[in-house]
Amino acid sequence: MKLEVVVPLVITVLVATAGYVVTYLTSLRLARRKDCLDRVNRQLGELYGPLYAQAEAVDRSWNKFCDRYWPLWIASEPVTAEQAAIWRLWMSTVFMPLNRRMAELVVSHADLLREETIPEPLKELCAHVACYEPVLARWQEDGFDSVQFDDHVSIAGDFPRGELDLYVRTSFESLKLEQARLLAQTQRRR
User: Fold this and answer.
1) Of the candidates 12, 19, 95, 134, which lies 20 to 30 Å from 184 by C-alpha distance?
2) Which of these, 119, 146, 121, lies nearest to 135 by C-alpha position?
């Protein structure tokens, strides 16, 4: 074969192969970016967004409750039957429904967690909710009229408010930044 035939043929094959490789690698990179963006969108839409909204609702409700009714069960001072009833009402109708929804989000969407294991604030949230269930069940028993502190609180201790708020807020904000970065990269590539 003549060199003037072979060289253009080899160059054509090399250019076509290089074009294919570049196209393949670009498509692969875009697919990976899209997969990353899809996961971040799911994390925000199905776990961290709803969790953040619920945590904010708990926080704001708690502050409103405290503004009006706190303090309850201070030191050795007993509460009145009315104060205990107010606590039970708020726990049953406001705080526990919100807390249950947060715990359910964690359990049903654990695959969307940013970490490889469940973070401590989320474990504490789930434990708090689980340990309050018997307390609420006891309140439903006929004749329950206790005003004792121990009959109105969970054995798990206080709600992990500070740690949970910090974790949820920083996770949400970090994911929003990641989402914005991925969207900006996607927009630049078009």
Assistant:
1) 19
2) 146
Task: Report yes or no: 96 and 129 within 8 Å, Cβ to Cβ.
Answer: yes
Which residue in 56, 46, 24 sits closest to 113, CA to CA?
A: 46
Confidence of residue 1 (pLDDT cuts 50, 70, 90): low
Distances (CA, A) of 56 to 62, 95, 100, 110, 147: 10, 12, 14, 20, 29
Mean pLDDT of the residues in the chain: 88
Cβ atoms of 146 and 84 within 8 Å: the answer is yes
CB neighbours (10 Å) of residue 185?
A: 14
Q: What is the mean pLDDT of residues 100-125?
A: 96
User: Residue 75: pLDDT band by 50, 70, 90 thresholds?
Assistant: low
Cβ atoms of 58 and 99 closer than 8 Å? yes
